[in-house]
Structures are given as C-alpha cells and as structure tokens.
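#lab-general

N.A. 3:47 PM
ok so I finally got the sequence cleaned up, no stray characters, all 189 residues accounted for. can someone with queue access submit it? mine expired

B.Y. 3:52 PM
send it over

N.A. 3:53 PM
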Amino acid sequence: MTADCPLLFIDEFEELALAAPETVRLEFINGRIEVRPLQDGNRAESVAYLQDAVWKLLPGMHLYPGRGLKVESGRAGRAIPDGVLAPEGLFRGHGEWSDPDGVLMVVEVTTRDTDTNRRVRVEKCDGYAAADIPVYLLLDREHGTVTVHSEPKDGSYRSLTTRPYGTPVELPAPVGFTLETEQLKKFAQ
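B.Y. 4:20 PM
back already:
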C-alpha cells in the first residue's frame, strides 16, 4: 500500500472516517489508514500555547485545532494536523476535509506512539510539502526541539531549522513572527 496503490479510494476513506465513532479520528496518509492518537494534556497545552501566541501576534488569523486537510500530491491524502494557521473564516462552509489553499502553516506535536517518526516526521511532512503548505512547524516533545520546515518545492521542504525548546524560533513568511519556546519545556514528554 502506497499513495500510488492505496488500500482504498479517497471517497471510500472519507465515508469510513465519517462513520467512525467520535472517539476515533482517522487519517489517510501515503495510501494507508492511520488512527490518529488522542491528544494528551501536554499536547493540548502545546497547541493552546500556540493559539495564544497567534491571537496576540497575528490579528485576523486563527490556529484551528484538528482541522482536516487534503494533502499530498493531487490532494490524495487526508491529514488532521494538531493546528492549522489560516485567516479567520477560511473554512466557513467547508465539510470535514478542506483544500489547503490559503493555509499559512500546519502544526504537529509529537506523541509517544511507536510510529511517530514515520508518520509525523516523514510522511505527514512530505504530504504537507506536496500540498504546498508554506510552513510546517513540528513541536518534538521527545527531543525537546522545534523544527520549522519551509519553502516547499517538488514535494519536500527546502529549508529546515531545528532549535531546542527555550530558544526563540523565527517563523518565516507568510507566518512572520518569532515564537518564544521557553514555555514549551513544561509540556515536553
């Protein structure tokens, strides 16, 4: 199973995801169904910290938690980032899955599940780049780092910056602000 030879077609996946119980969130990444881990308290606090920063520094923008996006080349994948930075009202009238046009940044916060490296650090990163999402911000609780991926081209991000928690991190245009990361130390692991 790969994106070229998926387990099922995207419309079949969307029907399955819609019928899943509320306690289960499904993603379709690289041709495979993925069960999205539930958000633990520290992961939720990390996203809330980013929401506060966006609210203070970027008027008219929202960090939407858990917003379903069409990703990968040809929009063949479905991902649910921990946060989606977009102008207020961008998703008005949309269903479960939105096209990423207009999205400035996606955010993922690592979990303790065994496939975090493959799913979050590789496959979702590639899917976001292939969808031309300008910035992918990875809060890596396991390593205590913030990684900024930017400049998507041909399905990958050409710029990558990693800094330890506690170091200010520049979020490039179109986001365009400095993220203070000292508070994220409280939510590591």
